[in-house]
Amino acid sequence: MAIILTNGKYYITHSKTGAVMKVLDIEQAQDFHSVDKAILQKNKVPGKCAGYYIMNTDVKEKKHKKKKKRKRKKFTKEERKAIYQKTDGVCYLCGGDITFGSFEIEHRMPKSKGGTDSLDNLFPCGHCCNMTKHDIYPDDFEEKVSQIFLYKMDKRHEDKLSWKIVHKMLNKMI
Ligand SMILES: [Zn+2]
């Protein structure tokens, strides 16, 4: 465990002569051992420490380990087939065609939000949609997509009367 000062890129340390300096390598960062001491350092040379914040490397390590533990489940060919057939070969988010060889498995309720690997939570998805939805709640995602759609259409057709009418109708439906 180490309490260090960083601005996200550089780390604060001391040279052999005792001068405060910044280094790129976290291994060379000075360990202040306590938050109080790190604050003291920041206050001593506020100019050099401007933009620097205190980081507990232990917390970072723990987070890192947690990330590593959350391994993605490997699906069998039969499982992939069952998921693919749920939508007859189209992305469940955008309706675009997806091939069996390239489709991705999307957790409707994200795993990070408590979603499981059970079949009823898994849907076939294109890469782009999968990346876009990421680990957003399904309802939040749908709302965001609607918002993006309305905003884009507004920008494109803001002067057209026909769009104004459609927009009014959509507002009531969404
Ligand atoms: Zn899609």
From TrEMBL:
Q: Is Transit peptide a UniProt keyword of this protein? A: no
Molecular-function annotations in GO: endonuclease activity
| Pfam families assigned | HNH_4
Q: Which keywords are on file for this protein?
A: Endonuclease, Hydrolase, Nuclease
What CDD domains does the record tag this protein with?
HNHc
Q: Does the keyword Hydrolase apply?
A: yes
Locate the HNH nuclease domain: which residues?
101-138
Q: Which domain of life is it from?
A: Bacteria
- Matching Gene3D superfamilies, A to Z? 1.10.30.50
According to UniProt, the name of this protein is HNH endonuclease
